[in-house]
Amino acid sequence: MTDIYIISGFLGAGKTTLIKTMVRSVFWDKKIVVIENDFGEAGIDAGLLRECSLTVTSLNAGCICCSLTGDFEKALERIQKDYAPDAIVVEPSGVGKLSDIARLCLKQEDKGNLHLQRTITVVDIRFFDKYLKNYGEFFKDQISYADLILLSHQEECQKEIGRVKKSILDINPQARIEADFWDSIPRPVFQYGPRNIALFKLGMEQTVSMKPVRIRTGYRKDSIKKKGILYRHFAREVFSAVTLECAEPLSEEQLRKKVLHVVKQADGEILRGKGIVKSYPHSLIFHFMPGSLEIVPANIEGNQLCFIGTGLDEQQIRTLFSEEL
């Protein structure tokens, strides 16, 4: 039976980096396939993973838990038939709910097709408080259903580690939390451990309504507040993604100016930016998080960028990026 691992985490937490680390330290003797789900139309993370000579299946233009459920199930069936891997690693969108992805995997487990081995969530210490306060429905879900939680950017926030670990345990008392550098964590920690009781309960739940509603202050005039009813939100109802193509080569300085121009001038809030653009002599990869922009050379081709956030105006962002600076 094929093992399946879910690598969850909010926008920019470090999921793709973790998978690369696990390929070297955990799966070095295994045949694995990665299912990568970018929010938006750009398969940027898939391109980065293929650098490691991994077999990657991309599911774009939405979240597995929102609009790609059928695609995800078909991808699982196709992968098992065509590749017969030892393990499948699923990297959901950063704004996806871990519970929804786990529910689909448990459904396949009940059919005897695979075994959900581990649910792992990466938590970025730098933005823990912000994401918990502003996007708690998604952020808490990713923590609540994780067997193993890994902290990222801990070297920058040493003094915050203890407090963040305590807050995580308040949300998920059963979670194993690792604050060490990932490549120093023993292999068995990634592979084995007790299953989160929340996952057991999830597997026994009957199908619930998945009707999305928009987040608003108060209640809509046409809605009725009913005691005991839980209103759930889909990522696409809260977050938006703008994907751009950049055909012209850019220098590192040009790319930096354009990205920062978009971030500073765009309406709404940009929570994540990433992309691969042409340059000389190598392509350039950029990663934006609030307060941080990293640009590095890469030996892979690409011409797409993606900005993810709330309240974004697609045409405005396209215009801002195309402006001469």
TrEMBL record:
Reactions the enzyme catalyzes: GTP + H2O = GDP + phosphate + H(+)
Pfam family, one: cobW
Keywords in alphabetical order: Chaperone, Hydrolase, Nucleotide-binding
GO CC annotations, alphabetized: cytoplasm
GO MF, one example: nucleotide binding
Residue ranges occupied by any CobW/HypB/UreG nucleotide-binding domain in the UniProt entry: 4-177
Gene3D superfamilies for the chain: CobW-like, C-terminal domain, P-loop containing nucleotide triphosphate hydrolases
Positions of the CobW C-terminal domain: 239-322
Family: Belongs to the SIMIBI class G3E GTPase family. ZNG1 subfamily.
Protein name (Swiss-Prot/TrEMBL): G3E family GTPase
